[in-house]
Design goal:
The chain is mainly alpha-helical. Helices cover 52% and strands 5% of the residues. It has two domains: 57 residues; 159 residues, hpI Integrase, Chain A, CATH 1.10.443.
């Protein structure tokens, strides 16, 4: 109850000097803690985190580039089956790392080839189609407990610490040492965008409820958009000129307007008005 807003601001800034993203995460957690305390009747004052400004962060743009993908795929094929399956699941289906770790055998339907994924951000269940080859690789893993990617103890999944250790080794061998595990999720969305998939499909894969967050991938879709517009322009150019002539008649000469009167005989007000009503 003695914590004041100025204390929160100073604490947030102290963390943010070197780690602004982590500072924002800590701020969100503290806000949530106070909201829970207020809801449970443990705190009768105001939430000191309210109106504390977060750091503005530039969205991270790193993902596995097309010329790097072959090396990564080759390395993953040399790894243990569960490592291949785990990282391929993120690359091909775009889950968050914890969502992949929380995958249970009961969540996988090998008949419909769907994964009943629990979205950790919005606390909802999402049905994700899994490519046949990947689902086959997952199906060959040992079923030691309820989790597909099980940990050392029965009833637990592999720890983030262990996964990170393996990923650091893999990315070093591939030569992509600045790529994080979460960047593999971004890689899935980025490659979909570059191959012309629409933003609604990408948002569905990522589990975004709005296209606002998915919009950062729109610029990667420019080549696909350019190709579509080029095809559109070619179709327009290929249309026979007679089609326009039969509907509207011969084009007026440069000295006449569309009604056959000499150009300039209209008043400016009439000319502009007719154009506005067209």
């Amino acid at each position: 109850s003695a914590l004041k807003r100025i204390d929160v601001i100073e604490w947030h800034q102290a963390i943010g000097v070197k780690h602004p993203s982590q500072a924002n995460q800590c701020l969100s957690q503290l806000r949530c803690m106070y909201n829970c305390a207020i809801d449970w009747g443990l705190h009768d004052g105001l939430n000191p985190v309210v109106r504390v400004k977060r750091y503005k962060l530039n969205p991270r743009e790193r993902f596995v580039q097309p010329h790097e993908m072959g090396r990564l795929q080759a390395q993953l094929h040399t790894e243990k089956p569960w490592l291949y399956a785990y990282f391929s699941l993120i690359l091909l289906c775009g889950p968050r790392r914890n969502e992949a770790l929380n995958c249970r055998w009961e969540d996988l339907d090998f008949t419909t080839k769907l994964w009943r994924k629990h979205n950790t951000k919005i606390d909802q269940v999402q049905m994700v189609p899994v490519p046949v080859g990947l689902l086959t690789a997952i199906g060959l893993l040992p079923r030691c407990c309820e989790y597909v990617f099980h940990g050392g103890e029965c009833g637990t999944h592999m720890s983030i610490t262990n996964i990170e250790k393996h990923w650091r080794r893999i990315r070093r061998k591939v030569g992509i040492e600045d790529v994080r595990i979460h960047d593999l999720r971004r890689t899935c969305a980025s490659h979909m965008a570059m191959n012309g998939e629409n933003l609604s499909a990408i948002a569905s894969v990522l589990g975004h409820t709005s296209l606002t967050h998915t919009g950062i991938y729109a610029r990667l879709n420019q080549d696909a958009v350019r190709a579509a517009l080029t095809r559109h322009a070619e179709r327009i150019a290929a249309m026979p000129a007679e089609a326009l002539d039969t509907q509207r008649g011969p084009a007026p000469s440069p000295a006449e307007n569309s009604e056959g009167r000499p150009r300039g005989s209209e008043s400016p007000r009439t000319w502009m008005g007719s154009a506005g009503n067209a």
